[in-house]
């Protein structure tokens, strides 16, 4: 990896983090439904999907895909992986992957919360 590549990832990451903060300000305080998280997950999934499938080139993909989307949300990577499995006509595996991510990630949060409070 060239130094410019690392700088692009860092600049994208800083931008993604600020954008996530701004979404929180626009969407407002958290309520029972995590609209802020849903918003960044959907927007990040859109952005990573676009970068991945538009053929924008390696460096724009590093800036937007790895950097900005990585800081904005990690859900976008999961979404792209699921779509790729469906595109490869592996729908059953896509379903298992999606369900596994949901159950294991929520389970990991629960375990982390439990460990943190013990």
Automatic annotation (TrEMBL):
Keyword Ion transport in annotation: yes
UniProt-listed GO biological process terms: cellular detoxification of fluoride
Source organism of the structure: Halalkalicoccus jeotgali (strain DSM 18796 / CECT 7217 / JCM 14584 / KCTC 4019 / B3)
Family designation: Belongs to the fluoride channel Fluc/FEX (TC 1.A.43) family.
Example GO molecular function: fluoride channel activity
Transmembrane region(s): 6-26, 38-56, 62-80, 92-116
Keywords: Cell membrane, Ion channel, Ion transport, Membrane, Metal-binding, Sodium, Transmembrane, Transmembrane helix, Transport
Identification of the protein by name: Fluoride-specific ion channel FluC
């Amino acid at each position: 990896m060239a130094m410019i590549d690392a700088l692009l990832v860092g600049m994208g990451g800083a931008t993604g983090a600020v954008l996530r903060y701004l979404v929180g300000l626009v969407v407002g305080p958290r309520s029972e439904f995590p609209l802020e998280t849903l918003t960044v997950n959907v927007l990040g999934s859109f952005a990573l999907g676009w970068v991945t499938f538009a053929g924008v080139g390696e460096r724009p993909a590093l800036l937007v895909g790895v950097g900005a989307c990585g800081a904005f949300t990690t859900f976008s990577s999961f979404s792209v992986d699921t779509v790729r499995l469906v595109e490869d006509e592996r729908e059953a595996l896509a379903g298992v992957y999606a369900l596994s991510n949901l159950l294991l990630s929520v389970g990991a949060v629960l375990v982390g919360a439990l460990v943190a409070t013990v």
